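EI: anyone free to look at a 90-residue chain?
SC: sure, send it
EI:
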Amino acid sequence: MPYTPDLVHELNTLIRFDLETSQHGIKVHKTADPEVIAATQRLHAKGLLTLVDGGYLTGLGRDAAEHAQAVLTILTSSTSPAAAAQKDFA
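SC: here you go
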């Protein structure tokens, strides 16, 4: 199943969390883009956020945010290990 626009908005919300500390949450204001508000509400409904307008990551939310941030790092690095391995097959 490919990433849908809704999932991309959820991933973009998850990467906004500072994983260095559990003391920083986020607050999505009512003036935010509707896609961001909806993504935050869906993440709360899925049990990843403590509040419907953001709050803090739950345990599951922290796991998801760690993975989302790791994927972003891998995909945006200039040379990933997989890319280097693919050169051997070219």
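EI: The mean pLDDT is 90.
SC: 👍
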